[in-house]
Amino acid sequence: MNLERTRASSLNIIIFLVAVVLISSSATAAQNRPFTLGQLTARPGESVSGFLEVPAGLDPATRIPVTVINGQKPGRVLAAVAGVHPYEYPPILALYRVKEMIKPEELSGTLILVHIANLPAFQRRTIYYNPFDWKNLNRVFPGDLHGTQSQRIAAVLTREVVDRAEALIDMHCGDGNEALIPYTYWMLSGDNQLDALTREMAVVFGLKHIIIDNTRAQDLENSKYLGNTAIVRKRPAITTESGYLGRVEEEAIAANVAGVLNVMKYFKMIPGQPQSQTDPVWIEKYEVIYSNHDGLFYPRAGMGDYVRAGQVVGVITDYHGNLLEEQRAPFTGILLYIIGTPPCNKGEPLFEVGRVKE
Prior knowledge:
By secondary structure, this protein is an alpha+beta fold. The protein has two domains: 35-266, Aminopeptidase (3-Layer(aba) Sandwich), CATH 3.40.630; 286-356, CATH 2.40.50.100. The protein is built from seven helices and 19 strands. The protein has helices spanning 2-29, 89-101, 119-123, 149-162, 192-205, 226-232, 250-266; strands at 35-37, 40-42, 46-54, 62-70, 73-81, 108-114, 167-172, 178-180, 183-187, 209-213, 237-241, 281-290, 295-299, 306-307, 312-317, 323-328, 333-339, 343-344, 349-356. The strands form three sheets. Strands 3, 4, 5, 6, 7, 8, 9, 10, 11, 12, 14, 17 and 19 form a 13-stranded mixed β-sheet that branches. Helix 2 crosses helix 7 (250-266).
């Protein structure tokens, strides 16, 4: 009898020790790990802000202001990037709000916020171009650490953000010269599983119009665009546009904040259900019309207008007011954006027309 009691007692002790080990292992598994980005390290439950350093080359060094919010619990690594085009203010301001809204102790996973990707151009209030090399940052990805400043910025973003993230939101709006309706690019990769995930990201971000984009190059060495750089590396990404003419308007800022939070909810990084776009307008084809001249542009239609094939959308004059060209719609569709300021330069965009999918 005593032997049986001893055996029973021993068995209970073993069961208790196994349970302790399992509980301990479960607790450890539920704990996130420290996350390092450049020279920054955020421990679980910590938010850290600082800079990604871009070394000097033929032109000066620069840096990229970032925040890493590392959740207490494990989960997806999501990057949200603003300021690739630095006159596009609503996404920039939106990410500063998101930074204050996300509590690391309530977060599952890690959120990387790139506040201003192109700081030199932001400081000088330029549209499209970096003031040191006159390149468009969103045309030089994946970049080159031995190239000009824009190329080096792109290379650092590719290495530290794109390659570290498990999903990415490339956030834009109408630049200082662009009157633009809100829309999202759903970039197709040819990978059905990846495309299904990016489609869901596009829908849950919440903007009304979604462009089905199958035009992006699949070249790892010449991906050009930040969002496409993630896609060709098999990371889900969307490119969003909310805001216009460089204006700081609450509606556009709020739409960007809501979009990031919706994607985070979709990935179960924060509590709640995403407020998905229930009736999106799908754009099955789009075309950007570029200027053939230097001069002044006079729009004959506005953002969001429906235009007919061949309709005059705007006219270009020289610097004496003489007519140089009438620019017409290439097909019937919606005017996604149009230049809203007079200067136009040869080779730069004038407007974009999208054809609505029936």
